[in-house]
């Protein structure tokens, strides 16, 4: 028996086995039985928590919620966007945080009279939209890139380094990709990161993906990338 025939027969067997064992009807039936058995209702899950925080998230001037110790620490230290409130896991109300990033954030929040609220882990999960928050969130205003006009370009060229490094992010719509690129830009010392107007806006997801680099870099935007 040839090796090619054996390989073909094996692939055919695996395909037919998977098709029989994991057909859509079997999966749907098994899922339905599991939900009936456990009384599972995805619409009611965490319903109370969502109702509690959705009003705040959608009504207070379009504020955003940053999450994660490094991101929040860099945001509060750089002061590049408005910060309205700091949220901490309620365990820190009775247990002093041992992470220097949290300690630094608390110290800066106290110095700037930023309100601090201790909330449950379930509520932290809600305002961070289920992302890993490490017990720290910030309610902040939106971070907008600075429009790159001709005067700004001339100033950057004349007062910057002799061989400046500029990077253009052209119509990137994935916030994770934008964050990863900006993190690399910060590491490599890029002076002028520029985003086209069709790029995804800077968001908490972008900030987290950049490891907080977004919070300390001056970002620029342009709607005419071919003219510079």
UniProtKB/TrEMBL annotation:
Gene3D superfamilies per record: 3.30.1330.30, 3.40.1280.10
Major localization class: mitochondrion
Cellular component terms per the entry's GO annotation: mitochondrion
Coiled coil stretches, renumbered: none
Alphabetized SUPFAM superfamilies for the sequence: alpha/beta knot, L30e-like
Keywords linked to the UniProt accession: Methyltransferase, Mitochondrion, Transferase, Transit peptide
Membrane-spanning residues: none
Keyword Cell membrane: no
Molecular function terms, GO-annotated: RNA binding; rRNA (guanine) methyltransferase activity
Name of this protein: rRNA methyltransferase 1, mitochondrial
InterPro entries from the UniProt entry: Alpha/beta_knot_MTases (IPR029028), MRM1 (IPR047182), Ribosomal_eL30-like_sf (IPR029064), SpoU_MeTrfase (IPR001537), SpoU_subst-bd (IPR013123), tRNA_m1G_MTases_N (IPR029026)
RNA 2-O ribose methyltransferase substrate binding domain span: 65-146
Secretion signal span: none
Domain of life: Eukaryota
SMART domains, A to Z: SpoU_sub_bind (SM00967)
Subcellular location(s) of the protein: Mitochondrion
